[in-house]
Amino acid sequence: MLVFLPARVLSWSGIVRPASFGAAQVAGVVVGASGAVLALWCIVTFIVIGRGTPAPFDPPRHLVVVGPYRLVRNPMYIGAGLALAGAALFYESWALLGYCAAFGFVMYLFVVVYEEPTLRATFGAPYVGYCERVQRWWPSGRPSRILSAKVRPSPGSIAARGSTSTHPTVSLTPRCPRAAFSA
Questions:
Q1: Domain of 167?
Q2: Structural domains of the chain, count
Q3: pLDDT (tens digit, 9 = 90+) per residue, 100-111?
């Protein structure tokens, strides 16, 4: 989704590697590399702190609220979006920038419709408290002061009952205290 489809977008739109390395390419490399580093930091944090992976079939077993997750709830998607935006800058491609915007919209829907309800069902009150302290997409300017990096699933939650399925009833109503369209 982050490599194959953007490559197809570039191919379909007839974009080739720039012949010269100008300001747009420098900016693209900086933005893209920053996004990739952020996304990799998130993956490592999931593995080390969360004891799982970003993949839905092996999700973190602990609520991850440290590292980049102290600033925003979805830094991995932000990093991926920045990597795509960096590629759009590098290639000076409106088509790739459009793909980046579509990626952001799809990730927003995924977070609101699936991910937040799943995390709330899995971790309960600790996740709700985290949502109250940390914004979804934009840092509040003050890092979250969460004491424990390892929050186990709450008693009675899907994960605590030993179910391998963590699919709650899907609702378009946001499950975090913030409104669905908050920052």
A1: 22-183
A2: 1
A3: 999 999 999 999
